[in-house]
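Lab notebook, page 48
Experiment: co-folding of the full assembly
Goal: obtain a model of how the components sit together before planning crosslinking
Operator: M.T.
Materials (sequences as entered):
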Amino acid sequence: EVQLVESGGGLVKPGGSLRLSCAASGFTFSSYSMNWVRQAPGKGLEWVSSISSSSSYIYYADSVKGRFTISRDNAKNSLYLQMNSLRAEDTAVYYCARIGVGNTVDYWGQGTLVTVSS
Amino acid sequence: QTVVTQEPSFSVSPGGTVTLTCGLSSGSVSTSYYPSWYQQTPGQAPRTLIYSTNTRSSGVPDRFSGSILGNKAALTITGAQADDESDYYCVLYMGSGHWVFGGGTKLTVL
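Observation: model returned without errors.
Model output:
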């Protein structure tokens, strides 16, 4: 069974940093590209960042470019999101998501809440 | 800036059929955008329903179907049930590792 379990969320002050982790199991993690997708309270889904299976290709939404860094450790079956210079508008549930066939997310984690507030 | 459009809300009667759409602020949606659809209930993670325009994800009932209708992607629910009451999101793949989600449609079954 495919499982994606996020951790690392919490309350942080504006300008602060946080590192999210996603532990993957139930599939060959090193064979799949991965996404981070977020959802602000009461709002819709927003794609944040993607990383290819070997980390060769990395992409970011304009809203986080230069502040967030996606990475992965295939030996540890883990995906990460380093978030710096956090702003109030970064407050959201952050989902780790696997990219399957057809350039689409096929599995989602349960999400971790990041709250940016003074 | 690319905007993906969805109806903010829709209503369907139990047993009825509803079609939700996913468009582009500029241009037409085609299969090249690999349109996908997700269902989300409050407090839960999204669930993948349809990918690559019309392929149902594992375990999704066949009353959910995807297509291209005119210049938009479409999700049709046939024989709506009470537990179909959810938010539905489409996403389009823009290439170069970028995706854009629509704003979501809140579906009411009553």
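Interpretation: The two ends of chain B are 36 Å apart (CA to CA).
Next step: discuss with group before ordering constructs.
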